[in-house]
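User: Assemble these into one structure.

Assistant: Restating your components, then the assembled model:
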Amino acid sequence: MTDKELKSKRIAILSPVAWRTPPRAYGAWETVAGNIAEGLVARGWKNITLFATKDSITKAKLVSFVDKGYEEDKSQIPSVSTCLHISKTLEQAGDFDLIHNNFDFLPLTYTPFIKTPMLTTIHGFSEPDILRVYYDHKDSYFVSISDSDRDPGLPYLATVYNGIDLSSLTFRDKPGDKLVHYGRIHNDKGTHLVIEVAKKCGMELIIAGIIQDQEYFDTQIKPHINQSSIRFIGPVDPVLRDELLKEAYAVLHLNTIPERFGLVMAESMAAGVPVIAMDLGSCREVIVDKQTGYLVNDVEQAVEVVGKIDLIDRKKCRRRVEENFTIDRMVENYEKVYKMIFENR
Amino acid sequence: MTDKELKSKRIAILSPVAWRTPPRAYGAWETVAGNIAEGLVARGWKNITLFATKDSITKAKLVSFVDKGYEEDKSQIPSVSTCLHISKTLEQAGDFDLIHNNFDFLPLTYTPFIKTPMLTTIHGFSEPDILRVYYDHKDSYFVSISDSDRDPGLPYLATVYNGIDLSSLTFRDKPGDKLVHYGRIHNDKGTHLVIEVAKKCGMELIIAGIIQDQEYFDTQIKPHINQSSIRFIGPVDPVLRDELLKEAYAVLHLNTIPERFGLVMAESMAAGVPVIAMDLGSCREVIVDKQTGYLVNDVEQAVEVVGKIDLIDRKKCRRRVEENFTIDRMVENYEKVYKMIFENR
């Protein structure tokens, strides 16, 4: 298959509809799905269609069955919006050569009814029970987002790391003077551990992100926030995120469960900010220990390596991302996967 | 189409998988779906397949993709079990002449992919937003369970009232001496109003059923329960229900929202027990006012008609059910609907 033949294939990119694509602030799966669509168009693909909310923004063709993200419009029942979005997308399956599913398990249940192949990027296993659906559709095509986030019972075509949009992440060689932590505020992301580290180091800390577990926030985070040494600034869009990273001496990412990929780590490094991350899941695939940040096992080690941040070359952080985690690199890897599917059918 | 031709058609009865079919205690949709399957077999249909949980009991052929009801096995994610149950059932659509869906809106989203017609009994609109899916599949076939429970924007083939199994409901001409209220313990069912009535009448009250809203139960019901004049006995299976109705002077059904059908009212009348019901929704289709119970508009009226229960002929209550709400009558009506579908395609 020539490059020209490949790039004329008709690809449907199925994004979730929890948020707009790309999301205004939070929405990791929509971010990646959007980046795939934009990246394919940028690399010269002629027939890319993004299936996402109606208010989505894309250079691909946009097709929508849901006006707004259900997280942004509480009059919607999520299960209603998702089943309509998915089923009506797949009713058009015959118009495409490949469906690239970025929307979890439900689309798989329609695959026995359509002839077009479906590639599913498994952005995460929210619960072990969802494996029942994946196991039931093992004859489909799967991509993992890190080598560590793989279920041993599933066949994968490849790992394709997420790619991020570098244009909104300014590289700064000069470090800020604060510790920064951002993403979802949830026990999984270890915000409480980050607070512990900041206190022990006697450094200022800025926390940003959506509160995903209100009880966790109210009981374990809020009591520590004083809006001086420990500040909480809520969710950040790409512009605010860039401002935030300017302040960062280091980004702390003390996840308490295995990380699946870790967009936050890639974004931080893109801005030249070293990352201190728990050595769980994909963190060691994203960070190069002692080169672009530090992998640690507990709060004590995190405190210790804050003292070694100056040993990290911030240019190396940026380069790590440029070489491995750009949209272009991601899409280049997806092109290989698409080609594999087309040539093996 | 001859009766013989009709009864040789291959029918798939799709039951929900929240509970076993028939359910051990609560599970209204599973009850009706099960009754349809058993009723068709009893009326001589040769090719009836019930799609339900693996532990279900039926004289039809049973096919299962889910071991147990997700309400009875909390390791299951409901959305995983439902999408597997529905999609794998519909993968077999080609083996059937008709799919009779008793499982809400999700099965409709697979209809564009299958050739077999689907008849959906709309057992209730849990939320207005689910109409988005129904409106999107107006070319499908719908049955309402009462004339009052119809959405004006949808085409219906007929109303088919639910049928109940009379064999487990003993008719007793001699009234009990207690007020009885059973079903889901939820504000919608007006349990708190029933307590008010019982107190004002100075009569003993027995409440039975599953607690569907724990906060409602804890704040509005539990404080009144003394296990003497006001008793709560939890959920009842058909055997316990029969014992309960033996105690009943009248059944109080003071629903605060329009009733869709009201199995409880039919069951009560089958046991010869008059029903005092709020005049909302289908109640006036199930009860004949002043003949098999009383329709009321508030607590005061309910108190008043408790004093008139002796005017009701309990045999008439039973007859009302025998003539209108038996499984056989329900299935007879569904046969007419099935025939309509087969003859108009």
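Chain B has a mean pLDDT of 97.
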